[in-house]
Amino acid sequence: MYDDFFFPYEKAKLWTGNMVLLSLSNFLLYASLYMMLPALPLWMVRHWYCSYAEAGAAVAVFGLAMFLPGAFNSYLIDTFKRKSVCLVAMLLFVASSLLYPYVATVGFIALVRAVQGGLFSVITMTTGSTLVIDVTASRRRTDANIAFSWVGRFGMVAGLALGIYIYPYWNFHHVVYTCVALGTLALLLILVVDVPFRAPLRTSWFSLDRFLLPRTLWPALNMMMLSAVFGILIAHIYNELFYICILIGFIISLLLLRYVLSYASGRSEVELGQAAMIGGLLLLAFSNSLMNSYIAGVLLGTGIGTTVSRFFIKMISLPMHCERGTGNNTYQLMWEVGMLSGFLFENMWTESHPDTIYWICIGICVTLLLMYEFFTHPWYYRKMEEKQ
């Protein structure tokens, strides 16, 4: 751990060499994971003639499997070297991606996705919840968590655009090989990260530490609704330029948070973000123009980036000092579960009701906004204080 007690805040660097390596690895890892999402269901439907609902369910198993290793997280990182745990999990994650073209049934695809979900959970726990904190000065750890999560979001959207671009021009095998190449690069970057020595500890096998933090579950529920909308869009829209526009929206939301909303309240950020999302969804619902869909992508990226940043900050601010990693891991788990739930819902719903999907997304955004407004209103806090 860094000991910066005798150093002023301005001397504690955020973007150290180790932080840059971890962030680049995170970008490549998320790009590798998310570029498979748009291509895998299409390949399953065309290759095995299964329904989109079956393909979506096989893909969504990943989210549930992320919870399987959670109770062992604390034991893994306290008993073994954290970097070694991360490297082994990444190696198995990348190697398992090579199985996709050679499995014979939808059930085997679900099994591979389940294995990858468990491994990805270990990777995100050891990187974002542990290694990033280990290589960062204590006064900059909140900034490091925020920056690391933003890099992952950029990787998500870049992976989606890349997967949609590659699949029609080449074939599914090229998508798989690109995923493996990106994952291998991510592994090599972790390999050269210099992690401070930490003596092993004796801990129990089962623990919620580094797994789930109950006091963050309320903002996590709000954030899951947001990620569900993102998952619905991923399953519904196959246009790489649309996701590039979402990436532009992410950049705009970063600039807004840095220069316009830096002193605004959390409520203002969520209100602005949901207004942008609802505006983008209305454009998609009422217009078939490509240009309007690109404008909608920018609005949706701005809205998602602004809102999820607020919920993430809340989820890493609620924990005590020693619970920061647990709060961060809770965010990772809930984001993936919400996103894959939306992904599965779209694949099941649109076979019968394809024209209603944007209105469902608008309903989710309105519900999220109303819930957030109610539970953050001063009237609600006064009622809670009176009850206490």
What does this structure look like?
Helix 6 (106-134) runs antiparallel to helix 13 and helix 11 (266-286) packs antiparallel against helix 14. The longest helix is centred in the first third of the chain and has 29 residues, at 106-134. The model is unreliable at 1-10 and 384-388 (pLDDT under 50). By secondary structure, this protein is an all-alpha fold. The chain is built from 15 helices and no strands. It has helices at residues 17-34, 36-48, 52-65, 73-79, 82-97, 106-134, 141-169, 172-191, 217-236, 240-260, 266-286, 290-317, 324-349, 357-375, 378-387. The protein starts with 16 loop residues before the first helix and ends with a helix. The radius of gyration is 21 Å and the shape is globular.
**Major sheet size, sense and barrel closure:** none
Q: What is the element string, with H for helices and E for strands? A: HHHHHHHHHHHHHHH
**Secondary structure: number of strands:** 0
Helix content: over 70%
The fraction of residues in strands falls at under 5%
Structural class: mainly alpha
What gap, in angstroms, lies between the N and C termini?
A: 40 Å
Runs in which pLDDT lies below 50 for 5 or more consecutive residues are: 1-10, 384-388
Summed up, the helix count is 15
Tell me which oligomeric state these chains represent: single chain
Radius of gyration: 21 Å
> What is the overall silhouette?
globular
Mean pLDDT figure: 87
